[in-house]
Amino acid sequence: MPEARPVLIDIHQDEVLTGEAVALDVQPVGYFLRALGVLIDMLIGIALLFMFVLLTAWLMSIGAVDESTVTILTIGVIVLVLVVIPTVVETMSRGRSVGKLVVGGRIVRSDGGATGFRHAFIRALVGVFELWFTFGAVAALVGAFTPRSQRLGDLLAGTYSERTRTPSLETTGFGVPLPLVEWAAIVDIARLPERLARRLAQFGASARNMQPAARARVAASLAAEAAEHVAPVPAVDPETFIMGVVAVRRGRELRALQLETARVSALTSAVAAAPRGFPQH
Predict the structure, then answer these.
(1) Residue 149: half-sphere exposure toward Cβ, Cα within 13 Å
(2) Distance between CA 107 and CA 161 in Å, rounded?
(3) HSE value, Cβ hemisphere, 13 Å, CA-based, for 179
(4) Cis peptide bond N-terminal to 232, omega within 30
(5) Which of 42-51, 59-68, 126-135, 272-281 has the lowest mean pLDDT?
(6) Cα–Cα distance for residue pair 228/233, rounded to 1 Å
(7) Nearest to 169 by CA among 269, 267, 256, 264
(8) For the residues 62-79, what does the mean pLDDT come to?
(9) What is the mean pLDDT of the segment spanning 216-234?
(10) From residue 40, how far is each of 34, 35, 127 by CA, in Å?
(11) Separation of alpha carbons 129 and 237, rounded Å
(12) 3-class SS of residue 64
C-alpha cells in the first residue's frame, strides 16, 4: 500500500479551523475598538462602586451600619462588581457585555465556539489584575502584541473577541443596460485577467466624466480585449458592451459573496451550538 502522506492545511491568523477541518474566515475586533469596549465596561463598574459608596455613606449617616459591617460589605461589593457580575453577564449572554455590544463584538473560544462559565470566570478573575490593579496597562500591552488583540485573560481562557458587525456589501452602481437584459441571462464570461477586470471597472465608474473622443477610444480598446473572454458577443456599441460585462460580473460576484457569507454563518452557528470534543463509543 502507498504510504499515507499528511495533509497540510494553510490557516491564516483570521481563520478558525473547525473539527471537520473547515477553515472559517472570521474577523476579530480591532485593538482600539476592543479597548473602547473594555473602557465602557470598566466605567459601568466604577459607576456601580460609586453608587455603593453613596449608599454606604447614607446608611452610616443614619446609624444603620457600623464600620466593621462597612468593611465586610465593601469587600463583598468589590468581588461582586469585579468578578461575579462580569462572569454572570458573559455566561448568560454568551460572551457579550455592554461594552462589546457597543463596539459590535463578542467573546468566543479560540475554535470559534461559544464560551461558558469557565471562560468567563477566568477572564474576570485575571481582569482584576490586568484591568483594575494596573489600570488596563497590562491588557493594553499584551493586546498590542497578539494577533487578535487578546488580553492576558483571553490567552489563559483560550478566547478572543470576534466581530459580530460586518460592513454591508456594496451594491452595483449601475445595472445591465436594457439592450443586454436577455443576453445577460445566457452569457458566459470567462475569468478575466486582473488588470483587464480592474480597467473595465474603472471605466464603468468614470466614463461619464471623460471627454467624448477619449471615452470612445478607450471603450473600443477595452471592448476588443474583453470580447476574447465573452461568449456570445452582443451586437452593441463598445461602451454598452463594457457596461453589460461589468454589471454581469458584479452581480455574479455579489451573489457568490452572499452565498459564502450564508455558508460561513451557518457553519459558525453549528460550531457554536456543538459540544466540544467527540462522542466516546
Answers:
(1) 18
(2) 4
(3) 12
(4) yes
(5) 272-281
(6) 9
(7) 256
(8) 87
(9) 90
(10) 10, 9, 14
(11) 70
(12) coil
Which H or E element spans position 263? helix 238-273
The answer to whether 85 and 42 have CB atoms below 8 angstroms apart is no
Does residue 142 contact residue 155 with C-beta atoms inside 8 Å? yes
Degrees (nearest 5) of the Cα angle 202, 206, 212? 120
Contacts of 269 (CB under 8 A, 6+ apart): none
Give the span between the Cα atoms of 4 and 139, in whole angstroms: 45
User: DSSP of 136-169, one letter per residue?
Assistant: THHHHHHHHTSTT---HHHHHHTEEEEE---PPP
Strand partners for 163? 105
Cell numbers that stand for 117 in this block: 462559565
Q: Report if pTM > 0.70.
A: no
For residue 35 the three cell numbers come to: 479597548
Burial class of residue 195 (count of CB atoms within 10 Å of its CB; 0-12, 13-18, 19+): exposed
Averaged pLDDT score across all residues of the chain? 82
